[in-house]
Backbone:
């Protein structure tokens, strides 16, 4: 199931777990970024490198969604020394709901996506099965 977990959900869960074991946000983020290979972790690495040089770097362009911005805000608060475990827990639940909603929408759209190949590939075969004998009989009666 590890490969199926969206990167944002994986990041939030891992940070929450590491903080609940007693690590600081800085240490939890460092360990997560060392072990993760996702594009989200790559963007977070770049942001963190900018944060080391500048106090308020702009968020990465890939952090345009509200959930990603919320994760970045919680990480910033945690790096500033504010408590963030409760926020990570509620954010984890919200990310899970959003992922479930996105999955439900995708599953609900599948019947329509499957209908197109059915119509394109099977319908002509059914027409040949129906019209083939009729056309042969018509051809025989016409003298062909």
Residues:
């Amino acid at each position: 199931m590890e490969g199926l977990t969206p990167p944002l959900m994986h990041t939030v869960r891992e940070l929450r777990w590491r903080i609940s074991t007693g690590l600081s946000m800085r240490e939890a983020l460092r360990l997560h970024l060392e072990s993760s290979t996702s594009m989200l972790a790559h963007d977070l690495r770049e942001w963190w490198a900018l944060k080391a040089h500048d106090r308020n770097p702009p968020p990465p362009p890939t952090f345009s969604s509200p959930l990603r911005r919320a994760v970045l805000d919680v990480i910033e608060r945690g790096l500033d020394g504010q408590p963030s475990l409760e926020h990570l827990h509620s954010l984890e639940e919200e990310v899970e709901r959003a992922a479930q909603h996105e999955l439900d929408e995708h599953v609900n759209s599948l019947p329509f996506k499957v209908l197109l190949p059915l119509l394109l590939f099977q319908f002509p075969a059914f027409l040949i099965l129906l019209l083939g004998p009729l056309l042969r009989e018509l051809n025989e009666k016409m003298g062909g």
User: Anything to note?
Assistant: Helices lie at 7-20, 25-35, 39-53, 66-79, 85-141. The first helix runs from residue 7 to 20. Residues 1 and 30 are 24 Å apart (CA to CA). The chain has a mean pLDDT of 87.
